[in-house]
Write a structure and sequence with these properties.
Blueprint (H helix, E strand, L loop, with lengths): L8 E4 L7 H10 L3 E3 L6 H9 L8 E5 L3 H4 L4 H10 L4 E5 L8 H6 L3 E3 L6 H17 L1 H9 L21 E5 L3 H10 L6 E5 L6 H4 L3 E2 L3 H7 L2 E4 L13 H5 L5 E5 L8 H10 L2 E6 L10 H4 L4 E3 L8 H21 L14
Parallel strand pairs: 1-2, 1-3, 3-4, 4-5, 6-7, 6-9, 7-8, 9-10, 10-11, 11-12
Length: about 350
């Protein structure tokens, strides 16, 4: 089905930093009208919505930051969107879409798309930085140097770190990002790379990595655990007191997925006791106000969710959001349907 003959109205949540040219092409080539919200919070957005301001909207495009304007795209908001707009598509700018209740969207006949593949390289690069920094205590060494500790202690008094060589890397979630992490770690002469997915990958995708049928098996073997699973009801607080107890003493944990995959109070205890030697993370459960008890620990390497914070990646992601809209206009189906809805539309 093509919708090319119909003028489409898109409710765009920004910011749009780099893809204005793609949006201009969409508007001029496909008779698209773009409208935007002036709301500052969910209450104001719901008021706008119920006023009829967006009655003609067929498609919503959103960013991770737009949650400040609308709140989570949960069952309540989806019901309101369905009632007060003509929404058929929600195009999300990001690989992770845990802010969106995709199942409820599907029940209301709304297609949900995300950005796949384009985030893999930048996120994996960030992951490797965190991994090496956590092994070698690099962040603490920078702090110690800035605090003037170098003249009185070797390396500013920073604890001796570890080399990656000879270690076993366990990747939780070997999707595109997990495989990019695997490939980037190959030159470091690891003992082996193991992974756990819900299902074993094909030999082509698996490469040299070894499949662990259970998370427990991975936890027991890995010296370094790389978290690359999506956040959902099955993965929330996957890393907790019980699973940490299954890990090796002195394990290193790296997270570039979502903060809520880790039970942070349990991790704090493990970091203080030494059960977990160090933790590197770009993501936190309560962003942008994470628990300072965690990120201020000396054996934590912390970043403020900047895994895709590069000009090239952000531009490509913004343009892909537009491509999802174009593909819907031309075919009646978004380009990158989220997995939960692939067999529904």
């Amino acid at each position: 089905m093509s919708t090319a003959s119909k003028s489409l109205t898109v409710l765009r949540f920004g910011p749009t930093r780099f893809a204005q040219s793609a949006w201009n092409d969409l508007i001029s080539n496909y008779h698209v009208k773009v409208v935007e919200s002036e709301a500052h919070n969910r209450e104001e957005f719901l008021k706008e919505l119920r006023s009829g301001k967006f009655a003609d909207v067929d498609c919503v495009t959103r960013t991770f930051e737009s949650v400040k304007k609308t709140g989570l795209v949960d069952k309540e908001l989806i019901s309101e969107l369905k009632k007060y707009t003509q929404i058929k598509v929600l195009s999300h700018n990001g690989a992770g879409y845990d802010q969106v209740d995709a199942v409820s969207c599907g029940e209301q006949g709304i297609q949900v798309s995300n950005v796949i593949g384009l985030v893999d390289a930048a996120t994996a690069d960030t992951h490797i930085y965190l991994l090496l920094s956590a092994l070698r205590n690099f962040q603490l060494s920078t702090i110690n140097m800035r605090d003037g500790k170098w003249p009185t202690a070797k390396c500013g008094g920073t604890p001796i770190g570890h080399d990656p060589e000879g270690k076993t890397l366990g990747i939780l979630g070997m999707g595109g990002i997990g495989r990019a992490i695997r490939d980037r770690m190959k030159p470091f002469d690891l003992n082996k790379i193991i992974y756990h997915n819900r299902h074993q990958l094909s030999s082509e995708l698996e490469g040299d990595a070894e499949f662990c049928p259970t998370k427990k098996e991975l936890f027991e073997q890995a010296d370094i655990i790389s978290i690359s699973v999506p956040l959902n009801g099955h993965t929330q607080h996957m890393i907790n007191k019980d699973t940490i107890s299954q890990m090796k003493d002195g394990v290193v944990i790296i997270n570039t997925a979502r903060g809520a995959i880790v039970n942070e109070p349990d991790l704090i205890d493990a970091l203080k006791s030494g059960k977990v030697a160090s933790f590197g993370s770009d993501v936190w459960e309560n962003e942008p106000n994470p628990d300072s008890q965690l990120y201020m620990l000396p054996n934590v390497v912390a970043l403020p969710h900047m895994g895709t914070h590069t000009f090239e990646t952000m531009k490509a992601m913004e343009e892909y959001v537009v491509k999802n809209v174009v593909h819907y206009i031309e075919t009646g189906r978004v380009l990158a349907m989220v997995p939960e809805l692939k067999h529904k539309f």
